[in-house]
Amino acid sequence: MSTYQQQVHCSASEIDIDFWRAPEGVAIPDDELTFLLIPDAVEAMAVFTLSQQVHRYQQEQSPDGAPITRALMATMGGMLPGILLHDHLEKGRSQGTPPIEFGTIGISLYKGPNERYENPQVQQDVSIPVLNDTVLIIDDLGDRGGTMDFLIQYVAEKGAKKILTLALYMKPMAMSICPVDFFFGELQQDIWVITPREYVETIVKRVPVWKSRGASLGECRRRLVDIIGYPQALTDYYLEKAFTGG
């Protein structure tokens, strides 16, 4: 069993945090993408690590600097890490640091795996006021840098005094175009990351592609479970629907 397979299926106490800082994806036959499945426990641990970075920033900036007072979760990617961060940053904040009000902003660059819109799509405006605030923008992945770059400009136009950025993972293109202030790990450019919020989405989007290229139902199951590391029960529930289009 590969290190990747061991880490995808191990218990929370056996997670190798260093492995997950720069994990490699797994290849699938006849697919130009490589895939990386992030378990719930790994995302929770990554967010905890990120929260410590932000705590240090808040302590250094309080009371007379520019501590964060607003946080915007970019939907959909920033929702899960943002919710986990709220527990650490709001409920676990240090004495003397200001509370952070959390809100959302809806934007999308992707229709599905490797399918991009021509221009960023604003689906929901900022849900909280940010005028004269130090704002933290939260997302799960920096891929090509376009989403975060657009968000920074958009939030700046709303009157934010200072803007900081956070992502779980960054890819090289995003790092060169729009590096973030806080991140957990780095990935190769060709990896398709499957976070806990998009397990089902990836099945629904990718299984029909595999089928169109000749993969059987059993082969699709093998790719999901044995190679990528999907949970068996979740795969059994959604795979046939995705394969037949039912």
Protein topology:
Elements: H1 3-9, H2 17-21, E1 26-27, E2 34-37, H3 40-61, E3 70-75, H4 79-91, E4 101-112, E5 115-124, E6 134-142, H5 146-157, E7 162-170, H6 172-177, E8 182-186, E9 191-194, H7 199-212, H8 217-228, H9 232-244
Parallel strand pairs: 2-9, 3-4, 3-6, 6-7, 7-8
Antiparallel strand pairs: 1-2, 4-5
Helix pairs in contact: 3-4, 7-9, 8-9
What does this structure look like?
The chain is of the alpha/beta class and about 250 residues long. It folds into two domains: about 5-40 and about 195-245, no CATH class; about 40-185, Rossmann fold (3-Layer(aba) Sandwich), CATH 3.40.50.2020. The chain is about 40% helix and about 25% strand. The strands form two sheets. It has a six-stranded mixed sheet, with helices on both faces. A three-stranded mixed sheet has the order 1-2-9, with no helix packed on it. It starts with a helix and ends with a helix.
The CATH topology of the largest domain = Rossmann fold
Radius of gyration, in angstroms, nearest whole number: 19 Å
List low-pLDDT spans: none
The geometry reads as globular
